[in-house]
C-alpha cells in the first residue's frame, strides 16, 4: 500500500527524484477535466467546420478566406494541444522529455504562425480599404497562399532554432522527473518577443489604425453623396460598404486575439527568467482564443452559417456541392 508521500509523487518508483503532484479534490479535478475536454473538442470541431467550408466551396476561395483558413488550421491544432494541458492537470508530465520538447516547440511555432496570419489579415484589409483600385491586382489567391506558406515555414524554422538546445537534449532544464520545462536564453527570449509579439502587434495596430481612419472617412463620404448617385455609383458604394464591413469583422477577430494573447507575453516580459513551464495557465487564455474565432465567424458571416448547415446535413457529399453559392 502506498504511503502518503508516494501518493503525492508523479513517479512513486523514483522516490528521491520525482516531482510532486498538484493535489486536487476529485470534484475539482473532474470539473477541470470536463471543461478542458469540452473546450478541446469544441475548438477542433468548430475549426474543422471552417476548414471544410473554405476548402470545399469554390466560391469561398478568396484571398481573405485563404487567410481565415490558415488561422483556422492553427486554431484547430491548438485544440489538439489543449489535450496536453489535460495531461498536466495534476502538475505531472507523463509523456517523456522528447514529447515535452516537441510540445513546447509546436506551441511556440503555432502561436507565431497565428500571429503572422493576423499580420497578413491586417495587410489584406489595409490594401482593400486604402488602395481598393489596386487590391485585385496586388492581392491574389496565389500570392496569399505563398505568403501563408512562408509564414508557417518561418515560424517553425525560427522556433526550432531558438529551442534547439531543448530539442537536442530534452529534459535538460527539468529539476525532477515529471516536469516539463523549456528555457530560452536571454538573446533567444528577446528575439522571440520581437518576432512573435512586439513586432507583429505593432504592425497590426499601425495597419488597423490606418484602416479605420480611412474607413471612417469613406463612410462619411458615402453618406454625404448617397442621395445623388447613379446605379453604377450605388454598386461602387455597396462594394465599399462590403469591404468596410469585412474590415470591422476581422478587426473584432484581431482585438479578441490581442486580448487573449497579451497576458501570456506580459507574463513572459515580467518573468525573472525565460523558463517556460508547460502547465502555465497563461497558455489556456491564448488557447481559448482559438475556440472564440469560429463563434465570431458564425455571428458575423452568413456564408459560414450556410456552409455549416450544408456540412452537417451532408449536402457536401453531392457531386456538384462544391459549386454551391454560399455567399
UniProtKB/TrEMBL annotation:
Q: How does it sit in the membrane?
A: Multi-pass membrane protein
Question: Where located?
Answer: Cell membrane
Question: Gene Ontology cellular component?
Answer: plasma membrane
Example of a GO MF term = trace-amine receptor activity
Q: Where is the G-protein coupled receptors family 1 profile domain?
A: 46-297
Q: Do the record's keywords include Thylakoid?
A: no
On whether Iron is a keyword of this UniProt record, the answer is no
Q: Which SMART domains match?
A: 7TM_GPCR_Srsx
- Keywords for this protein: Cell membrane, G-protein coupled receptor, Membrane, Receptor, Transducer, Transmembrane, Transmembrane helix
**Which residue windows are transmembrane per the record?**
30-54, 66-89, 101-123, 144-163, 193-216, 246-271, 283-304
Family to which the UniProt record says this protein belongs? Belongs to the G-protein coupled receptor 1 family.
What is the name of the protein in this document? Trace amine-associated receptor 8a-like
Write down the species. Answer: Xiphophorus maculatus
Amino acid at each position: 500500500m502506498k504511503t502518503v508521500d508516494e501518493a503525492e509523487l508523479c513517479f512513486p518508483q523514483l522516490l528521491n527524484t520525482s516531482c510532486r503532484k498538484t493535489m486536487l479534490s476529485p470534484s475539482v479535478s473532474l470539473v477541470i477535466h470536463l471543461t478542458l475536454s469540452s473546450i478541446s473538442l469544441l475548438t477542433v470541431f468548430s475549426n474543422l467546420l471552417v476548414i471544410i467550408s473554405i476548402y470545399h466551396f469554390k466560391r469561398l476561395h478568396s484571398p481573405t478566406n485563404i487567410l481565415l483558413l490558415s488561422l483556422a488550421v492553427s486554431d484547430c491544432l491548438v485544440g489538439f494541444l489543449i489535450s496536453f494541458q489535460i495531461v498536466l492537470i495534476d502538475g505531472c508530465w507523463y509523456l517523456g522529455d522528447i514529447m515535452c520538447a516537441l510540445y513546447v516547440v509546436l506551441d511556440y511555432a503555432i502561436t507565431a504562425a497565428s500571429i503572422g496570419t493576423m499580420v497578413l489579415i491586417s495587410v489584406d484589409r489595409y490594401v482593400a480599404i486604402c488602395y481598393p483600385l489596386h487590391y485585385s491586382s496586388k492581392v491574389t489567391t496565389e500570392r496569399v497562399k505563398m505568403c501563408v506558406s512562408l509564414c508557417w515555414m518561418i515560424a517553425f524554422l525560427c522556433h526550432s532554432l531558438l529551442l534547439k538546445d531543448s530539442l537536442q537534449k530534452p529534459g535538460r532544464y527539468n529539476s525532477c522527473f515529471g516536469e516539463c520545462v523549456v528555457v530560452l536564453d536571454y538573446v533567444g527570449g528577446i528575439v522571440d518577443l520581437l518576432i512573435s509579439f512586439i513586432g507583429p502587434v505593432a504592425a497590426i495596430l499601425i495597419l488597423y489604425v490606418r484602416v479605420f481612419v480611412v474607413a471612417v472617412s469613406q463612410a462619411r463620404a458615402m453618406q454625404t453623396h448617397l442621395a445623388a448617385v447613379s446605379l453604377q455609383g450605388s454598386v461602387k458604394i455597396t462594394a465599399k460598404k462590403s469591404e468596410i464591413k469585412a474590415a470591422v469583422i476581422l478587426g473584432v477577430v484581431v482585438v479578441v486575439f490581442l486580448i487573449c494573447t497579451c497576458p501570456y507575453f506580459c507574463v513572459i516580459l515580467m518573468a525573472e527568467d525565460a523558463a517556460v513551464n508547460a502547465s502555465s495557465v497563461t497558455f489556456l487564455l491564448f488557447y481559448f482564443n482559438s475556440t472564440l474565432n469560429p463563434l465570431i465567424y458564425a455571428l458575423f458571416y452568413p456564408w459560414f452559417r450556410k456552409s455549416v448547415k450544408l456540412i452537417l446535413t451532408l449536402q457536401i457529399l453531392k457531386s456538384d456541392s462544391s459549386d454551391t453559392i454560399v455567399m
